[in-house]
Amino acid sequence: LFRHVLEAVQHCASCGVLHRDIKPGNILVDLATGQAKLIDFACGTYLQDTGYTQYAGTPSYSPLEWTHFGWYYSKPATICSLGIL
């Protein structure tokens, strides 16, 4: 199941998209196949090389850099959200 979530996140990144709200409520699971889908891109944005200074996702899944410094980078933030998940 988690592998499917990782594949979805990787697909988003390959399309230049940062989800920014990875949490259990944004993952749908097809019970017949076990396939997971990442949904709700309302908080998403385009990937950028520079840091982000705005966060639109669920606070309890926010990256630690955002909580402590008010900025974050896409890859570490995504890894942090996946770790919390």
Describe, in plain words, how this protein is organized in 3D.
With 85 residues, this protein is of the alpha+beta class. It has one domain: Transferase(Phosphotransferase), domain 1. Helices cover 35% and strands 12% of the residues. The strands form two sheets. It has a two-stranded antiparallel sheet. A hairpin with a 6-residue loop joins strand 2 and strand 3. The longest helix is centred in the first third of the chain and has 13 residues. It starts with a helix and ends with a helix. One of its GO terms (biological process) is negative regulation of apoptotic process. This is non-specific serine/threonine protein kinase. GO terms for molecular function: ATP binding; protein serine/threonine kinase activity. Belongs to the protein kinase superfamily. CAMK Ser/Thr protein kinase family. PIM subfamily.
Number of beta strands: 4
Encode the helix/strand succession as letters: HEEEEHH
Broad structural category: alpha+beta
Globally, the shape reads globular
Number of contiguous helices: 3
Overall mean pLDDT stands at 95
Distance between the termini: 12 Å
Helix content: 25-40%
How would you name the CATH homologous superfamily?
Transferase(Phosphotransferase) domain 1
- The portion of residues forming beta strands comes to 5-15%
Number of domains: 1
Strands of the widest sheet, in order across it, are 1-4
Unreliably modeled segments: none
Largest sheet: 2 strands, antiparallel
Determine and state the CATH class.
Mainly Alpha
Radius of gyration: 13 Å
Under CATH, the topology is which?
Answer: Transferase(Phosphotransferase), domain 1
